[in-house]
């Protein structure tokens, strides 16, 4: 992802005005540099660790100690009730979250505790702060998955994403880039078979080359990898993954963005509720996740209309932040909902004090912040906030979803999804279902002909005994 400076003037809005008070924030963050997906299991590298740690330091300077400090949040010693940190069950993402937290809340010093018997105990690692990272089932194994929907169990999302492989856009790119990918074979044939080096695998081919460019001192046939070629591998990977993560007329494939929207709404509502109750809790939500969730959320929130670079895969350690703030006088207590506003910020790659996140307008508008009511209503258009809603939307009826299965045609997922998209079969799934449908039609027609024409079934042995040739056919699903 390569953001231009067309909207750089908006970054001025990221600085806080004198009368402004930040009441809470929610960050969604990508992991740091890692090993390639094609050589699973993937692992966070030392560079990746440094990237997320540095990002944690930046957000510490923004939300804990700086002029945008979240009102009432503990600056040095973490208060766990003020913080919620989540990540999928994934080695790279969990470790990235922990590295980020080390930068956000560093050790509090050489804490020494005196015991009753006169002994003194010094805190390990100079007071390293133990902050739990809660796990999410959603997105489990994201960084070991070559295909972004492998990390979801949402049936309808997989079908929706798979429909990209039958689209005109995909077919045109698959055919027009054959020679381009053929030229890359000598570079990657130590990992991929020649037949797999096509636009169909645009992202994992790019991912392998990208990791090699960062870490390998020598790359096979490296003379092929000109700046133009590297740029094209990245651009094609962007188009491929955007097509799988978001489609304006079939938004079911954006289930991860819908879930993120639900989690943001739930947490920010708890921030407001706690504040109105006079409690010092639920101030800062942090979630780590894969680039697919970024893509899905970007599309659903129409951020590509603010800047087309949102259609590019975010770099390692990229982050987006949603800030809840007010310009109201707080001397009379917590502000009313009418006085609350939200703004969206994004930074491609590791944020720092010399390269800060930029404000972008949400929902296809032009305003750099929206009222809480408009924000809540905007996210509610696509947010999935409950297990029941997820089960119905995904068409799942087993496991956790068994409790919500209604049977028959009552399940809304059996018709058109609520975001305007219907069921679209993948080449694999559609092939299996199509084979059975075709077989049913053939058998039905054959039965009708037999009943009307007086034909009857006989065994192969009987036919063979009469000297008739035997023909056997099979359907490969």
Automatic annotation (TrEMBL):
Protein source organism: Melanomma pulvis-pyrius CBS 109.77
A Gene Ontology molecular function term of the record: phosphatase activity
Name assigned to this protein: Phosphoglycerate mutase-like protein
One matching Pfam family: His_Phos_2
Keywords per UniProt: Membrane, Signal, Transmembrane, Transmembrane helix
Membrane-crossing residue ranges in chain numbering: 427-452
InterPro entries, A to Z: His_Pase_clade-2 (IPR000560), His_PPase_superfam (IPR029033), Histidine_acid_phosphatase (IPR050645)
Family: Belongs to the histidine acid phosphatase family.
Superkingdom of origin organism: Eukaryota
């Amino acid at each position: 992802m390569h953001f231009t400076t067309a909207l750089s003037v908006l970054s001025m809005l990221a600085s806080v005005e004198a009368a402004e008070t930040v009441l809470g924030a929610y960050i969604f963050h990508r992991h740091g540099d890692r090993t390639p997906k094609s050589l699973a299991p993937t692992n966070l590298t030392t560079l990746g660790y440094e990237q997320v740690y540095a990002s944690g330091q930046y957000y510490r300077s923004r939300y804990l100690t700086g002029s945008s400090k979240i009102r009432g949040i503990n600056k040095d010693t973490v208060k766990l009730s003020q913080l919620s940190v989540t990540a999928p069950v994934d080695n790279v993402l969990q470790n990235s979250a922990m590295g980020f937290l080390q930068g956000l809340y560093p050790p509090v010093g050489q804490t020494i505790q005196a015991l009753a018997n006169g002994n003194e105990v010094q805190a390990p690692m100079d007071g390293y702060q133990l902050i739990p990272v809660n796990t999410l089932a959603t997105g489990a194994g994201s960084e070991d998955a070559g295909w972004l929907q492998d990390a979801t169990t949402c049936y309808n999302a997989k079908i929706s994403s798979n429909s990209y492989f039958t689209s005109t856009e995909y077919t045109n790119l698959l055919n027009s880039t054959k020679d381009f990918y053929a030229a890359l074979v000598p570079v990657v044939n130590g990992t991929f078979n020649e037949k797999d080096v096509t636009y169909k695998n645009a992202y994992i081919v790019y991912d392998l080359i990208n990791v090699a460019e960062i870490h390998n001192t020598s790359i096979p046939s490296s003379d092929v990898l000109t700046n133009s070629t590297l740029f094209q591998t990245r651009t094609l990977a962007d188009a491929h993954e955007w097509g799988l993560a978001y489609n304006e007329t079939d938004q079911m494939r954006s289930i991860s963005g819908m879930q993120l929207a639900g989690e943001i709404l739930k947490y920010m509502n708890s921030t407001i509720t706690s504040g109105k109750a006079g409690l010092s809790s639920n101030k800062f939500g942090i979630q780590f996740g894969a680039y697919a969730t970024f893509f899905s959320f970007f599309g659903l929130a129409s951020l590509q209309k603010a800047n087309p670079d949102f259609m590019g895969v975010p770099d390692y350690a990229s982050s987006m932040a949603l800030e809840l703030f007010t310009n109201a006088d707080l001397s009379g207590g917590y502000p009313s909902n009418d006085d609350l506003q939200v703004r969206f910020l994004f930074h491609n790659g590791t944020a720092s004090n010399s390269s800060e996140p930029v404000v972008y307008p949400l929902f296809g508008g032009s305003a750099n912040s929206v009222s809480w009511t408009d924000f809540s209503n905007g996210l509610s258009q696509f947010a999935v906030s409950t297990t029941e809603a997820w089960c119905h939307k995904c068409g799942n009826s087993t496991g956790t979803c068994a409790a919500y299965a209604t049977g028959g045609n009552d399940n809304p997922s059996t018709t058109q999804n609520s975001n305007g998209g219907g069921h679209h079969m993948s080449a694999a799934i559609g092939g299996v279902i199509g084979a059975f449908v075709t077989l049913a039609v053939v058998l039905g027609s054959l039965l009708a002909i037999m009943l009307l024409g007086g034909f009857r079934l006989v065994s192969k042995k009987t036919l063979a005994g009469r000297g008739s040739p035997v023909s056997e056919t099979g359907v490969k699903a």
